[in-house]
Write a structure and sequence with these properties.
InterPro entries: CCDC138 (IPR038798), CCDC138_C (IPR048750). It is a single chain. The protein is mainly α and 349 residues long. Among the domains are: 39-56 and 73-149 and 162-167, no CATH class; 259-349, no CATH class. Helices cover 58% and strands 6% of the residues. It contains 17 helices and three strands. It has helices at residues 2-7, 10-22, 36-54, 71-94, 106-119, 130-142, 173-186, 190-203, 207-215, 219-223, 234-243, 251-258, 261-271, 278-291, 298-303, 306-316, 322-334; strands at 30-32, 144-151, 156-165. A three-stranded mixed β-sheet has the order 1-2-3. A hairpin with a 4-residue loop joins strand 2 (144-151) and strand 3 (156-165).
Length: 349
């Protein structure tokens, strides 16, 4: 009887087939609103919030006197962080929709995610975010591929060729750059991080890349990997920082961004490591030499006893490592700790 009713009712037959199809997870399509103006409106708001609010990071590492933020500011910061914690899982889910959205809207969307992540830097790590951050990093790294789309207005599936949205592997430098920084903040897999630093080094060869590095306040992101536990990444981390020390309009702003407690504390911990790789030490000495030219940084060298460590390294370094010796001599001279700087003239390669 059931079969006869189905034969006599084409609509029922269609519905029965639809039910069977829905049982196959792989064929389940994504639903997406066809009103692209909604997404344009949202990305305008995201750009506005990113530029005017989320990117206004309080550099709590810049001071040396241990001042705590005012209660009002601390309360506002906590409130912002809580909102970001609620938003990030939703934003991560929305990445799956981006293949259906105009590609020019991807950058403000991903940038909003980046600044939301940066707001969490100074807060307590939320254990509930671990899974979200891991998925976020992997989706940004690999990109998103969606097999089908469902027209919500017509209420039926429309098969189409696979659609993709590339982030870390995008051909757009601004989108690729901010995606790289998200990968560095969220991913723990060594091979992903190695590829991210390789991409960062290449992009920093261009002036646009250097400007993006400054605009996105990327120093803390890179410094989070300048540690012994990331020994395999240390050469790549230093190469990224060294790209910013090449003579350009970005050099002075970069040195100013490094003139903070966070940078000097990180260097101090690294310099205390036994048997630090010579090449890493040489690269670090280049940056420290340039920072020693800024008079106000002398207090930071002294606060973290870096000047004493450099003196000890200078004393024990074999003369055949001339490049390192030259940088050490020049740095100590700039700090007023040596009377002679005869080798400093050839410090900068």
């Amino acid at each position: 009887m059931t079969i006869q009713r189905l034969k006599g009712n084409p609509q029922a037959t269609h519905e029965a087939k639809s039910l069977k199809q829905e049982k196959v997870p792989a064929s389940k399509p994504c639903k997406v609103s066809l009103n692209g103006q909604v997404y344009e409106l949202l990305t305008v708001f995201m750009d506005w919030i990113s530029d005017q609010h989320l990117s206004k990071l309080k550099n709590e590492e810049s001071g040396m006197d241990g001042e705590k933020p005012l209660p009002t500011f601390a309360s506002q910061r906590t409130d912002i962080q809580e909102k970001c914690v609620k938003l990030l899982p939703l934003m991560t889910e929305q990445l799956q929709w981006l293949p259906f959205v105009n590609a020019r809207l991807h950058e403000p969307f991903v940038k909003f995610i980046y600044w939301s992540l940066r707001q969490l830097d100074a807060g307590t790590q939320h254990s509930t975010m671990t899974t979200t951050l891991r998925r976020l990093g992997e989706d940004i790294f690999r990109g998103v591929v969606t097999k089908g789309v469902q027209d919500a207005a017509l209420e039926h599936s429309v098969e189409s060729r696979p659609r993709t949205a590339a982030f870390f592997k995008s051909t757009s430098l601004p989108l690729r750059f901010v995606s790289t920084l998200i990968v560095l903040k969220t991913v723990t897999q060594a091979d992903f991080l190695a590829q991210a630093f390789d991409s960062l080094c290449l992009d920093l060869q261009a002036d646009e890349g250097k400007n993006l590095f400054l605009q996105l306040q990327a120093v803390p992101v890179v410094l989070s990997h300048l540690k012994l536990s990331s020994r395999g990444l240390l050469p790549s981390v230093m190469d990224s920082l060294l790209q910013m020390t090449v003579e350009s309009s970005a050099l002075q702003p970069f040195l100013e961004a490094c003139s903070c407690s966070l940078f000097f504390r990180t260097c101090s911990v690294l310099l205390r490591a036994p048997k630090l790789d010579l090449h890493v030490l040489e690269k670090l000495s280049i940056i420290l030499q340039k920072l020693s030219k800024i008079k106000s940084n002398k207090k930071l060298f002294e606060l973290f006893t870096i000047h004493l460590m450099l003196q000890e390294i200078q004393r024990t370094t074999h003369p055949e490592h001339a490049f390192l010796c030259i940088n050490l001599n020049s740095t100590l001279f700039n700090l007023g700790l040596t009377k002679c700087n005869s080798l400093a003239a050839s410090t900068n390669p």
